[in-house]
Amino acid sequence: MIIIHGDNQLQSSNRLTALTEEIKTKGFKVSIYDQSEVSVGLLRQELSNTDLFGESNYLLIKGLLSGAKSKNKDKVIEYLKESSSEKLLLYETKTVHAATLKQFKGATVEGFKVDINVFKFLEKVVPNNLPVIISGYKDLIDRGAEPEFIFAMLVRQLRLLIQFQTS
Questions:
Q1: Helix (H, G, I), strand (E, B), or coil: what is residue 111?
Q2: How far apart are CA 75 and CA 13, in angstroms?
Q3: What gap in Å lies between CA 154 and CA 56, rounded to an integer?
Q4: I need a surface site. Which of 18, 31, 32, 63 has the fewest CB within 10 A?
Q5: This prediction's pTM
C-alpha cells in the first residue's frame, strides 16, 4: 500500500501521475475511485488477484482518509487495515495526521509539504521592494520550487488581500 498526501498539491499530483504510469508499465490495470464510490465489496472485487480477462488490478482511491466521516468509510478503512494489500494507492490532497497513517502498518507513506519559504517570500511582496522580491524568487527557484506554484500562491495571496479589503 502506498499513501500519497500533503498540502503541496502540485508535487503530490506529479508524483501520483508518475507512479500510476510506472504501475501501468508493469502490466497492471489502474482502477480509480473517489472515496464516496468505495465499499468493502468493491475492494474485495478490485483487489483480487486477477479480473475476468486475466489482468491484475491496482486500486487508486482518492480522498479516503480526509473525506467526511461515514459508517461505510469506517468499514472500508478497517478492511484496508486488515488486508494490507500491496496493490493499493491512497491519494489525499491534504496532509493526513500521523496517527491516522500509523494505522496502516507496512504502508509506504509519501508526504508533500509546502515550503515555508514560499510564505516568507509572499510577505516580502510589497510595492517598492523589487530587489528583495527578485532575490527571494531566485532563492525559491534554487530550492526547487515550481514557478507555476509560486505564481499560484501569489495569485491566492492577492485574492485574499482583495477579499479582506472589500469586507
A1: strand
A2: 27
A3: 43
A4: 18
A5: 0.76
The rounded radius of gyration (Å) of the Cα atoms in the chain is 20
Query: For position 43, what pLDDT does the model report?
Result: 84
User: Do 60 and 86 form a contact (C-beta atoms < 8 A)?
Assistant: no
Which residues sit opposite 90 in a β-bridge?
A: 3, 61
User: Which residues are CB-contacts of 28 (< 8 A; sequence separation ≥ 6)?
Assistant: 55, 56, 57, 58, 87
Q: What is the pLDDT of residues 50-71, one digit of tens each?
A: 556 666 788 898 988 887 788 8
CA 105 → CA 77, 82, 148, distances in Å?
A: 13, 9, 35
Average pLDDT, the chain: 86
Q: What percent of the chain has pLDDT over 70?
A: 94
Q: Provide the grid cell at 2.
A: 502506498
Give the largest CA-CA distance in the chain: 66
